[in-house]
Amino acid sequence: GDSVTQMEGPVTLSEEAFLTINCTYTATGYPSLFWYVQYPGEGLQLLLKATKADDKGSNKGFEATYRKETTSFHLEKGSVQVSDSAVYFCALRVGYQLIWGAGTKLIIKP
Amino acid sequence: EAGVAQSPRYKIIEKRQSVAFWCNPISGHATLYWYQQILGQGPKLLIQFQNNGVVDDSQLPKDRFSAERLKGVDSTLKIQPAKLEDSAVYLCASSLGGVGDTEAFFGQGTRLTVV
User: Fold this and answer.
1) Which pLDDT tens digits describe chain B residue by residue (115 residues)?
2) For residue A40, is the peptide bond before it cis, meaning its omega torsion is within 30 degrees of 0?
3) To 5 degrees, how large is the angle CA B34–CA B35–CA B37?
4) Alpha-carbon gap, residue A51 to B37, rounded angstroms
């Protein structure tokens, strides 16, 4: 069945470090791909999305490219800040279904 | 535009009591989701509505959980009777629905503590 696999956390980085959080998927058809972020004590917010192959989603310095050949949607940021500490979820939509990864906790130390 | 509204934000109840949560989705959104998120885990879909019809309730514990979406707008989720393991954040989300539907928009959630 359709699924999303994220790298396990927590991921701990120093401020201004480069970030990559891996996300790979298995899906029939042509899914849309998403990254959501959940800050402590808050609900889920859409961070970025891509709806077709080779699309690049970007927001707040984060980027992810929809790679159909590798079935991946890795999240990257060139220089992280303490305020980026949160849990990041990769998700895909196929038809009416929205399928979630388990989440990756990111901790940024000053 | 107004976001997804949920109430209450917090609720503490004793086990075996009942509780209800309310959600008002974004205007015009046909699809409404209820998720359960246990601390440290990803969201687990409980039920998904398309207008006022149920699309997926395969993970809803139907012996104690129920949900309705009258008139295809607001929705309520009820737990009766509650168990300790129901302690979680209950998230409501909505999306446009239909062909080309993409992201879901989430409310702030209701944090339920069962003691």
Assistant:
1) 679 999 999 999 999 999 999 999 999 999 999 999 998 788 899 999 999 899 999 999 999 999 999 888 999 999 999 999 999 999 999 998 876 667 889 999 999 999 9
2) no
3) 155
4) 26
Q: Which residue of A lies nearest to B37 if distances are taken between CA atoms? A: A43
Grouping H, G, I as helix, E, B as strand and the rest as coil, residue A75 is: strand
Residue A44 · residue A89 · CB < 8 Å: yes
Residue type, B11: K
Question: Distance (Å, rounded) from C-alpha B24 to C-alpha A67?
Answer: 36
- Chain B residue numbers touching A100 (CB-CB < 8 A): 42-43
The pLDDT value given to residue B71: 85
Burial of A22 per CB tally in 10 Å (0-12, 13-18, 19+) = middle
Give A-chain residues touching B50 at CB under 8 angstroms.
96
CB B92 within 8 A of CB B106: yes
Tell me if chain B has a CB within 8 Å of the CB of A107. no
- On the question of a cis peptide bond just before residue B8, with omega within 30 degrees of 0, the verdict is yes
Q: Which residues of chain A have pLDDT under 70?
A: none
CA–CA dist A46, A50 (Å, integer):
12
